[in-house]
Amino acid sequence: MESKTDFKFTYTDNLVDLSQAITVVENNKSLYDILVMVSMQTQLNFVQVNENIHVKAKKKKTQKINPLKLSKKQTLM
Questions:
Q1: CA angle 16, 21, 27 (to 5 degrees)
Q2: I need a surface site. Which of 3, 7, 28, 47 has the fewest CB within 10 A?
């Protein structure tokens, strides 16, 4: 996704399972919508800080309805 957006993703290797398969149909979807789909299939949350998106493990407590703190501006094509 970095190649299709202006964002850089940051994460800690031992907290993110890079081998986990996910399914996302991205045609004309916003980055926000794609990350919501990824979040629903994984134990990950995404937080935007300027031009970076920090990938974090979901907390064990009850999850909030909106798993992202990200603007809805950008669309991937």
A1: 105
A2: 3
Pick from 73, 53, 38: nearest CA to 7: 53
Q: What band does 14 get if pLDDT is binned at 50, 70 and 90?
A: confident
Contact in structure between 72 and 5 (CB atoms under 8 Å): no
How far lies 72's CA from each of 13, 31, 45, 59, in Å?
27, 7, 15, 23
Which tens digit of pLDDT belongs to each residue from 25-45? 767 888 898 899 889 888 889
CA atoms within 13 A on the CB side of 59: 6
